[in-house]
Specification:
Length: about 325
Amino acid sequence: MTLRDVLPPLLALAALGALAFLGLSGSALNFLITTLIIALAGLGWNVLGGFGGQYSFGHAAFFGTGAYATAVLQLRFGWNAWAGLAAGIGLGTATGFLIGTLSFRAGLRGSYFALVTLAFAEVFRILANAADLTGGAAGLLLTLQPGFGTMQFADRRLFCLLVLGFVGAALLASRWIERSRFGAQLIAVRENEEAARALGVDALRVKLGAIALSAAITAAAGALYVQHFLYLDAGVAYGTWISVEALLAPIVGGIGTAFGPLVGALALQGLGEATKHLSGGVPGLDLVVFGICLVAVIAFAPQGLIGLLRRRAAAAGA
């Protein structure tokens, strides 16, 4: 990658990092951190679904695995939070590789692959809800113990910078996919798998690489989520909410683009928060707004907000 490829992600992160230090209230900073975690999960989904064309309805399987691995190792076995984070990412990657191996070797694609990922997430949710190790239905509550080793900073802006670092790494990975040979092969598989095979592309290897990277990024989002909220249960970790949020962000922002998930997460979460504020906190109204946005984007801006801005810029320059 050249400096031109790296500069836009760095500038975007610098702007968001500066925003965290502009005297935000506690609730505003919490909103920014939560939005960045969802953007990170969206960046993970975009690697597999956006660049690879393998739509998943069950990225909660990777998010929850990363979150539970971190929480269980820290709470039950006394692991350092940083080591738990690394283990969570590793276990999430292994989970993605396992699901990918089972699905892609069986030739699943399209709606069949999407439903299989959803089924895995549901199985994990049921198991986590029943197992003593994961706290059963009561869930797990991490001890409030500020310190570097527990990843609990007295100044929450430092945790925001940590999340920004992960978002930056995921953005750079997305830019690398856009420019690399691996990315070209992944897009070729997305457009026409049979033609890509005929040209010598190892489609199975490419798709397994994509799902492993996608799962690693999403597992990191789960591990950061539990470190931020200090509580986890099966409904939060493996619930459909995170699978929906992870796919909505890139679809609304610009599927298959490096910045699409970040733009989509900021737009959707900002709109949802504004809706809650204006409606006085009516439950579920923000989800209705999400649904309307999704229909509007699919109907009028299939390339998402990024594509809309590019068309406007091209029209203005013509």
